[in-house]
Amino acid sequence: MYFLSGWPKRLLCAPRSPAEAPLHVQSDPRRAFFAVLAPARLSIWYSRPTVLIVTYKEPAKSSTQFGSYKQAEWRPDSTMIAVSTANGYILFFHITSSRGDKYLYEPVYPKGSPQMKGIPHFKEEHCAPALNLEMKKILDLQAPIMSLQSVLEDLLVATSDGLLHLIHWEGMTNGRKAINLSTVPFSVDLQSSRVGSFLGFADVHIKDMEYCATLDGFAVVFNDGKVGFITPVSSRFTAEQLHGVWPQDVIDGTCVAVNNKYRLMAFGCASGSVQVYTIDNTTGAMLLSHKLELTAKQYPDIWNKTGAVKIIRWSPDNSAVIVTWEYGGLSLWSVFGAQLICTLGGDFAYRSDGTKKDPLKINSMSWGAEGYHLWVISGFGSQHNEIESDLRSIVKQPSILLFQFIKSVLTVNPCMSNQEQVLLQGEDRLYLNCGDASQTQNPKSSSACTDHTPSREKSPFADGGLESQGLSTLLGHRHWHVVQISSTYLESNWPIRFSAIDELGQNIAVAGKFGFAHYSLLTKKWKLFGNITQEQNMIVTGGLAWWNDFMVLACYNLSDRQEELRIYLRTSNLDNAFAHVTKAPAETLLLSVFRDMVVVFRLDCSICLYSIERKFDGSNTTASVQVLQEVSMSRYIPHPFLVVSITLTSVSTENGITLKMPQQARDAESIMLNLAGQLIMMQRDRSGPQIREKDSNPNQRKLLPFCPPVVLAQSVENVWTTCRANKQKRHLLEALWLSCGGAGMKVWLPLFPRDHRKPHSFLSQRIMLPFHINIYPLAVLFEDALVLGAVNDTLLYDSLYTRNSAREQLEVLFPFCVVERTSQIYLHHILRQLLVRNLGEQALLLAQSCAALPYFPHVLELMLHEVLEEEATSREPIPDPLLPTVAKFITEFPLFLQTVVHCARKTEYALWNYLFAAVGNPKDLFEECLMAQDLDTAASYLIILQNMEVPAVSRQHATLLFNTALEQGKWDLCRHMIRFLKAIGSGESETPPSTPTTQEPSSSGGFEFFRNRSISLSQSAENVPPGKFSLQKTLSMPSGPSGKRWSKDSDCAENMYIDMMLWRHARRLLEDVRLKDLGCFAAQLGFELISWLCKERTRAARVDNFVVALKRLHKDFLWPLPIIPASSISSPFKNGKCRTVGEQLLKSQSADPFLTSEMDAGISNIQRSQSWLSNIGPTHRDTDIASSPGPQMQDAFLSPLSHKGDECSIGSATDLTESSSMVDGDWTMVDENFSTLSLTQSELEHISMELASKGPHKSQVQLRYLLHIFMEAGCLDWCVVISLILRESSVVSQILSIAQSSEMDGEMLQNIKTGLHAVDRWASTDCPGYKPFLNIIKPQLQKLSEITEEQVQPDTFQPITVGKTPEQSSPRAEESRGSSSRASISHSETGSNSVVSRNEEDTTGADEEEPFQDGAYDCSVS
Known about the structure:
The structure is a single chain. By secondary structure, the chain is α+β, with helices and mostly antiparallel strands. Among the domains are: 135 residues, no CATH class; 34 residues, no CATH class; 94 residues, no CATH class; 296 residues, no CATH class. It has 46 helices and 59 strands. The strands form 14 sheets. Strands 1, 2, 31, 32, 33, 34, 35 and 36 form an eight-stranded antiparallel β-sheet that branches. The longest helix is centred in the last third of the chain and has 21 residues. Pfam families: Beta-prop_RIC1_2nd, RIC1.
């Protein structure tokens, strides 16, 4: 439809005196010239360029005689203007071109530019012609003139003495008498007695009138507010031959405008509404079609305060009407009353600070060419205080404004309605919604044709390009794809009259005054006629359309004076030599393409069907056209101009089930004609004998005759159908979609019998369903059940200007207008309409076919919500409520539970009882959710239960949900449940729980509860989905928010209750050896694992079966069982390459070759970590250097192993996957180190073997973290199990050192001893890979058994704070603790987490060296 664009322009015509201020504007029939009247002058403006050509000034003497100018009317050939004056004179002006070949304004081009040469009509088109105005005749009618109207070769004038004068354009009355209105009979319709009542009053006269060519009569408004329609009964125009009809209910008419295409008369009323009438064909009475009025709902403060309607103007293509009121403001409506724009609300009416503006008052308006502009004479009221008096001189005086519009292509080229794109055309640009063509098909690859073709077949456009474009490109985003029309083409062919886009949305064609041009969105290039004479020799008359790669257009050939149908190939040059031309007998008014057929409607009211096919003529591809069938419609169509659109469709009243030949179901079954808003369908007549001969000509059966037409619907603006077929969505694809203006949309839906049963005889096969949508529909996406549209949006810029700057005014008075894309779902309306009509089975079929759409849950929710709101808030009782039906319908879908709860949460509490009475008890629904494992929905039901039930019930259900959530590891939900249970406990049972102020841990940052410890850095969660936990380093007992969290109401029984549940869950996890889940659980819920483990050390936290625990951890952490490499028998490390490290080391380890490689890795790692840390600061450097070389040489057994957890193991695959930023540095390091060692292939095999026996890096981090937790809690048996997996002999020595302290629990040591023996036995039989490691720790194991035997006082053991244990055992642990905390300080100063955590790992690698020898186990890695 029509949309405002940008700001209005103001034309420069500053009047120097009130006599020069413009008051009326009237365009000529071609809308190229505009006559602007001031009280004593007549000016003529040209439309493009918008310049003043000539002004006639009335001398003062004659001006007093004539009075001021009032109205102007053009002669149909634009050679004369008649002007009426206040004192009853009509002045006739002749317009002549002056000065021969001279022009007022001429474009100047640089020398040699192509525009200069040989364009016919070039001068007239580009330059404003120089014209002369001279007054030829003066006619005195001796009474004030109320209205002027040009009728064919005559001028009709109504005067205030009740007379109608018919005047010849030469200024002669031709001896005809003026008609006295009081002698014209008026009646309610033409059928009643010939002698109607006369108007009867002496002083009745016509206030406003307009001639309607298609109704052959005048719509008139009388001075007493009555309205009517006067029509000549015969061709002679005399009083005896006139007859009037009038509606009895309009008594406050003010003005009138006539729509010729739709045969509508719009009467403005004093109440501010516009009543639109049409004439009943049979009786001749005036019938009310619809009203245009502002509603109190949309404009609560203005709707009845607009004043009377002042001016109504229909757009040039008759598809929209613009209305203005006495007190100002503009509104734009579609032909049948859908409101498009109104300037009385929103940014038009209010400034950005909220104050109200004065609405723009309009004295006169006229549409420009093709409706791209609206010429407005504004008259600002003089209501302003002194401060702004200086402004009034510039701004508040009357001026000419040009409003700019963009319109939908459907208004002029209705054949575009069988496509899914929205295309808008502006004066010099096009707006498309099909996104960038390069998204759908990459232009770079399309040049490599061979590669691209196969992918094109599988593209969304499969099936010969008849598939839907897909939601992503059509809905994409809110912005348009704007294509500037070629300026070369526009210069000589402005204005653009037609435009069309092809089915794939990749090519556009436009046709202006002459010729046409087309544009490819892939190459971003325009293609114009090479020969300008050919372009200027054709005028496109009936629109243009795409058929595959061809443009089909109906045009008039100027040189041959011949109507033609032409087909041009897009890929060849634009030239008539490549066109296929078919001569046509009469002018084509409309054209449309369906499959391989073209249907045209001609001026002689005939419809012609052509078949079109591609022909390969040697190297050239052409299309050939054959006439299939002609149908004359002159019996049914009173005037060819009334046909708005013509479409071939496959829609028929039969559904193809009862058709005798199934393949005919999707053929061109019927012709749809929109005749002045009436949708008429003509089907093929299948009642005759059906010929089925295999060898018969395939065109034979297409020539079935058509049945007489049937009217399907009234007030139709646009029709959409598709020729695509889709078995799954037959309802939507075989339907017919109608847009009916203010009445919303209608769909003519086919009804299918289920399972191909025989249809009931009493069921119709189609049904017309009306529904309302909130946007103006411009395209229908059939499969996606969406309507696409566009909507005007406004932006205010008034804050940029100061109040008293004179330049500002237009930008302040008007917001900047933009057009935005919009879309709306309509499926719920249709389902609801079907349910209302007891067609639940059809509704179910339709819904099931659309259940895969992404917004289908939203559709169900909308339907439930709308019905609920209507019925629950209705004042009267509803005899047959729909809600139970809708509820039953929704239960057919798996989304039932979600739909109900989402609807309830978005509805006010007062309506819940009504809703749940229909859908079922919320307690039962909650339990269904739990059974279906849909915990999030269950949580939503919990909020409803909490509002509807007593606290005990909601507590009971919450506990159920909490336990289930714990089981399933839904941590987010668990946190909400803890909060919820506390809220219930603390008596907030009336309101839903509020978010506590203490910070909740976010689902991605795991251990915020430990953030007051010395190191708390989250692992960089690059590739961890937010639902997973991520671990953090912790060093001492938690004393952070977790303490605060429970202390808020720690005495509350509720906390105890929650804690009991948490403890129970932790116990269950430990009993099932689910350590990974335990870590997640503690991290996500801030569970104080260490203190709980201390309590449970001898109960739940014991390891009952070491072997089972070991196996389970291998499985949970995806850790491979160790294997013995094949070449271990002859160890390659016996050669002297590593002598530097010490001979005895190699000898002692000859049975265990991988340790040495691990040690080498250790060396390289230390060097690497030094270089990595060089940028962090001196602290690390010092600790590194202090701790690396010494221990490395002294105690090669233990230290290299610590690097197992280091992320930078030798070029391991995890390096690459973790983060690419490290890769380069890492590999160069590795290379240097390798070159110094110069390993042989067999050694490399060992290293790779060793890497293969390690699990993923993340598991390693998690295991180290758990090891640290258990160590702090004193659960040494678990520490042993974990160190076995990590193969950390150092930990065993640590446990040994702890065990040497006298306070160790003998029972635990005993447990460890028996456990290790069990593992040893298992390793001997099932997993020999563990043997080498067990051999290393054998000496420790022997020491352990000695201790257990000699230990005397197991009972005196008391739980100790773990931090003290290492310190008692070694003074040197102090230093290491200090160094590591120093490291952490500098980390916290370095902002970025990901880098820091990585560096941190390296530091700890270095830091750990020292504590390991001394038996203290320190920091863990994350």
